[in-house]
Design a protein that fits this description.
The chain has 226 residues and is an alpha+beta fold. A hairpin with a 5-residue loop joins strand 1 and strand 2. 16% of the residues lie in helices and 39% in strands. The longest helix is centred in the N-terminal third of the chain and has 13 residues. Strands 3, 4, 5, 8, 9, 11, 12 and 15 form an eight-stranded mixed beta sheet that branches. Strands 6-17-16-13-14 form a five-stranded mixed beta sheet, with no helix packed on it. It has one domain: Fumarylacetoacetase-like, C-terminal domain (Fumarylacetoacetate hydrolase, domain 2, Alpha-Beta Complex), CATH 3.90.850.10. InterPro entries: DUF2848, Fumarylacetoacetase_C_sf. This is DUF2848 domain-containing protein.
């Protein structure tokens, strides 16, 4: 069960029944296709269509402070999430922890290897939808020395909007309470190490002067025995 605190101080509980990760969801689809070609050179298989939509096990939608991963090649991605409730749709910050080694075998597999971490605060989408493209999305990583560096910086206008995915989910019959969709991400700074032991993501609404933030540590699991 996820619990979100709204700006007015009220809370909304959501039992997640469906979880989806959008992929290759940049607003500029020409750049997205160029990125797919770059990934193909690294051995990451491309999608059969863009944008893509990957079903993820619902239990992986978590409001966690720590994430356990199987290897060092695991990193987050700054994203937004929409959450369908009995009383409308919420918008919040999210971070999609992804196994990059597994990604070379299949993106859908990699999305199911680690949690999608969601913030504990949320906005009602109706309250921000008229300026949703202006909301800033940022991510920072913390290295082993405790030094923090910004790795992602953009706006929700860089990504396909929530309205696009709400229509898509309605068409598929999944736009109902308990469904969560994670947006896909924006580019990372190439000179910052994404394989860090700490991630922090923030959404900033400049119109209402409000922020939503999450952070968590990344811990590698012990090696298998046997």
């Amino acid at each position: 069960m996820l619990r979100f605190e709204l700006i007015d101080g009220s809370t909304v509980d959501v039992a997640v029944t469906r979880l989806f990760n959008a992929g290759y969801a940049g607003r500029d689809q020409a750049s997205v296709r160029a990125h797919i070609d770059e990934l193909a050179e690294l051995g990451v298989p491309g999608p059969s269509q863009v944008p893509a939509l990957y079903p993820v096990s619902p239990y992986l939608a978590q409001q966690a402070d720590s994430v356990a991963v199987q290897n060092e090649k695991s990193s987050g991605e700054a994203e937004w999430a929409i959450v369908f409730t009995d009383d409308g749709v919420l918008l919040t910050a999210a971070c999609d922890q992804t196994d990059r080694d597994l990604e070379t075998y299949g993106v859908a597999w990699s999305k199911n290897a680690s949690p999608d971490v969601l913030a504990k605060k949320a906005w009602r989408l109706d309250d921000v939808e008229d300026h949703v493209d202006d909301i800033r999305i940022e991510a920072w990583v913390t290295d082993s020395r405790g030094s923090e560096s910004r790795i992602q910086d953009g706006t929700l206008g860089d990504l396909l909007p929530p309205a696009h995915w709400i229509r898509e989910l309605k068409d598929q019959g999944y736009a109902r309470p308990g469904t969560v969709l994670i947006s896909g991400t924006i580019p990372m700074a190439p000179d910052v190490d994404q394989f860090a032991p700490g991630w922090r993501v923030r959404l900033t609404d400049p119109t209402n002067d409000e922020t939503i933030e999450l952070s968590y540590t990344v811990e590698k699991m012990p090696e298998p025995i046997g």
